[in-house]
Write a structure and sequence with these properties.
It contains 3 helices and 7 strands; from the N terminus they run αβββαβββαβ.
């Protein structure tokens, strides 16, 4: 039987890292000169984390295959978020435009300046 989480419980589980933030998404490209490669994060994973945002960014450590990197869930402007795919990660993991990618992320604490 599936547990129905309320928003507060879901946020606590994610922050405790008891819940895996793993999903599969297609590698996409922003259609502009030198556009970024990215994957859309399912709204069910990003929406409960919005209270953690600092200027719209939610600090995470992303992982694809054997690669991980500090990054953020970045707002798309329509209520959804994305994770940018750096060139070195795309190269190392042999990711191409349109590829189905299994990806995960963990919340990270930003270093204060």
């Amino acid at each position: 039987m599936r547990k129905n989480w309320n928003l507060e419980e879901l946020c606590e589980k994610i922050m405790e890292k008891d819940m895996e933030n793993t999903f599969v998404a297609k590698a996409e490209l922003f259609e502009r000169e030198k556009g970024w490669y990215y994957v859309l994060v399912p709204i069910g994973l990003s929406k409960p984390l919005e209270h953690l945002a600092d200027r719209g960014l939610i600090a995470v450590t992303a992982k694809v295959g054997n690669s991980s990197w500090p990054t953020s869930l970045l707002p798309m402007g329509n209520g959804t978020h994305f994770i940018a795919l750096p060139a070195k990660v795309r190269s190392k993991e042999k990711l191409s435009l349109g590829a189905e990618i299994e990806m995960s992320f963990e919340i990270r604490t930003r270093k204060s300046k």
